[in-house]
Amino acid sequence: MSDIPDRIVCDVLVIGCGISGATAALELARDPRCQITVVTKASDPVECNTYYAQGGIIYRGEDDSPERLVEDLIRAGDGMNNRSAVRALATEGPELVHELLVRRYQVPFTLDQHNRLELTREAAHSTNRIAHVHDATGRAIEEKLIEELRRRPNIQLLTRHTVVDLLTPSHHSLDRLAIYEPLSCVGAYVFDESADCVRTVLAKVTVLASGGLGQVFVHTTNPSGATGDGLAMAYRAGARIINAEYVQFHPTVFYYRGRARFLISEALRGEGARLLNSEHQPFMHRYAPQWGELAPRDVVARSIHLEMLRTDAPCVYLDLASVMPSATIAERFPNICSSCREYGVDPTQEPIPVVPAAHYLCGGVWVDEWGRTSLRRLYAVGEVSCTGVHGANRLGSASLLEGLVWGVRAATDIRPKLPEWEVVDSRNIPQWQTERAIDPADPVLVEHDMGTIKHTMWYYVGLVRTRLRLERALRDLSNLRQDVDAFYRTTRLAPGIISLRSAILAAIIVARAAWENRESRGCHYRED
User: Fold this and answer.
1) Half-sphere exposure at residue 182, Cβ-oriented, CA atoms within 13 angstroms
2) Beta 155-158 vs 36-39: how paired, if at all?
3) 23, 157, 266, 311: which one has the fewest Cβ atoms less than 10 Å from its Cβ?
């Protein structure tokens, strides 16, 4: 039996513990009076998108400036960026990397021969400004942050806890007059997988940091938990969602036997790697003569897609071996080399087979410059949110920096308000009601429905979109949602059925946004 109470009361509930959620929790925990509960559906809290970010985090190069970074962000975002958010990232971000990640948490960034941070360049950056830990930057950052979370006595870290729904008085209060109040969030219903029960978590404020939705596509760089949970629960609660059509596809993901397997960092192209077609000929000069391999991600991904169609090939190749010594490749990219060798490919000697894959949601839950959503006392940070920093397409290594900056910004805005706020009267929020004699979710049905979502999104709402494909996707997904909702209501709760319910709604949100926007911008490309 678990010793965790069925009803948890805290000052702040943080949903997710990637760089944005962990940073927000740690900044809030500096006040020892603040009681914070952090929940993650993973069994190991490092399992999140942050952990798998290979390339690095934006810092500041020798010839760099906030103005130069602003220009690069807006160019990559195809002009759709929120200027005030971009300015905040460019001015505050590099200093936070230094103060928090380098000095306070001592992330072991790779150093150059002068014992300074080694800086590299990625696509669409105009200078070398990416700090990294070889090719496993996210892993190094996440491991340090989780260590810090575990050290703080006023942070309760709950693993294998999947959020079912956000709690809003308008939807859940026993006082029916609450529907006349402005929308607000007072916590969440959270399923504890270990105890097989749903806990009611009541908080003064909730920080949504649940990550992205890559798992609604066949090919993705995202871990298994990225099923759009936060986007779906925020939508059900009534939060404003924007720019959901802007799903960035990473151009280079290792391809093996019909599947994208793992990310091949953009840093390889930053170091000079060339893209080759199935005939082992370079092709990027035909699609992006100005940038070549260092074009913005949406341009590179579509160029690969078109070249695969032109040559009737299942993949293209990324060649670093011909431009960098073998020993340097092995030293600079040890994890990529190790992962490729597991599939019989040696990047130090031969080109790497790659395909594009769903990577990052540039849109999400609308937030202002401090991470506040359209619901009172609900903040959103990281990939689940849309600050407008990325516009229509994300600049490489900007996501970790955005998570860091808005984790700090949200905490800064929350901290002085906590004494004024109170936890909702628990008598007005009912415990989760579990029906009796309901069957467990059939894993075969869950897997089949997830497969239908993935294939529908990949073929109809993927790299290249048309009105007919999008309308077909919306019809198919809407019909499936009815089946999934019925499935959800009549089966015993489990992580699989909760994620399936989130995934189908997240997929519909993206497909509908893509259908409504007829203008091709950034990573949203309408062929018609």
Assistant:
1) 6
2) parallel
3) 311
- Got the DSSP string for 2-36? --S-SEEEEEEEEE--SHHHHHHHHHHTTSTT--E
Amino acid letter, 492 = R
Name every residue whose Cβ is closer than 8 Å to that of residue 341 and which is 6 or more positions away in sequence: none
CA distances from 408 to 89, 97, 158 (A): 11, 11, 22
Residue identified by tokens 């953009």 is 266
Radius of gyration of the chain (CA): 22
Closest CA to 417 of 15, 133, 89, 34: 34
Whether 228 and 362 have beta carbons less than 8 Å apart is answered as no
Exposure on the CB side of residue 484, measured as CA atoms within 13 A: 27
What's the pLDDT score for residue 436?
54
At 438 the pLDDT is: 74
Instruction: Tell me the pLDDT tens digit for each residue of 368-421.
Output: 999 999 999 999 999 999 999 999 999 989 999 999 999 999 999 999 999 999
Q: Contact at 8 Å (CB) between 329 and 195?
A: no
Q: Which of 12, 18, 14 is nearest to 383 (CA)?
A: 18
With pLDDT > 70 as the criterion, what percentage of the chain qualifies?
99
CA distances in angstroms from 314 to 34, 142, 255, 256, 351, listed in the order given: 53, 34, 9, 10, 15
Distance (Å, whole) CA 144 – CA 167: 31
Look up residue 105 and give its amino acid.
Answer: Y
Cβ atoms of 280 and 352 within 8 Å: the answer is: no
Query: Among residues 121, 261, 297, 465, which one is catalytic?
Result: 297
68 is catalytic: no
CB 320 within 8 A of CB 272: yes
> DSSP code of 526?
B
HEC sequence for 136-168:
CHHHHHHHHHHHHHHHCCCEEEECCEEEEEEEC
